[in-house]
Amino acid sequence: MRKYNRAAYLNLAVKALLFVTFVALSFCVFYCFLNLGILISAAVAALFGSAVVFLFSYLLRYTAFYFKYYFLISGLLFRNSQGNVYCPCCGKRFEKFQDDRYYDDKRFNPSTFSNSRQDVICDCCRSAPRQRIIAEWAEQNTELLNRSEILYFAPELSMMLWFKRHGIKVKTADLFDRRTDLKLDLTALDLPDESVDIVFCNHVLEHVTDHSRALSELHRIIRKGGRLIISFPIDESLDEMIEDKECSVEDRIRLFGQCDHLRLFGKDSKMMLENAGFEADTIDIRKMPEDIVPVTGPSDYDTNKIFCCIRK
Ligand SMILES: [Zn+2]
Fold it and tell me: In whole angstroms, what is the distance from residue 192 CA to residue 173 CA?
């Protein structure tokens, strides 16, 4: 979940105000000097057109909303530069990653940002370390991905860019997001048994009402030998997962770190996946390049533990 950039909104508001003022003045001139009408109309139309493009690009840039078009727009907005860090999702290099100041956002518990590095978000595609780790894994498994039927739950802009750049087709699914190909409830999947080869499901399990049911449904739709790439917030100090589906928003923030999280996973995560019928392993980050900054963060619970499970 991304936090909107206040400075960018202010910037956008000032520019929008300037634009409206200019259009209003242009129309005044138009009515005063009718003989200049055509010239002024053409100028206003040109300005209006470029302003629309400009505003649209800003909306895309700061809301990351229409990921289908983001690939094109981000190519125009972000130049590839020399730098110390690299984002394998969008393929861009930067001086450093950004601090998105999630700890200032009331939806999150600020104390869960204590030990993490904050400068971890890609300025172009908003990838966090976990998405860059998944993109690196995907780079090493392009052949497998090319020949697989892939389903991506709660699609992340950064990974959608990676798939687009590599020409790999994925079906996207979500219960609420209208941009996805399928509307699916993870706890009651409207899909046949063993109908998908690979499922990506990152940071969804902490939101659903019944995570055990969700895992059992995932196991049902993935073909034997297929893969489940899954991650969720983990508190390594917890021996067991904690959950409370009925508690208040304030308690969710306090207990699970975020206003819409119903549980927090612990050391028993691997066992939970194995009990659901998967051979659970984690993506080995030791061989990952340092310039993708594969660290914990932005939250302490955003560990770089990505499970790459094989369906038994
Ligand atoms: Zn990126």
Answer: 15
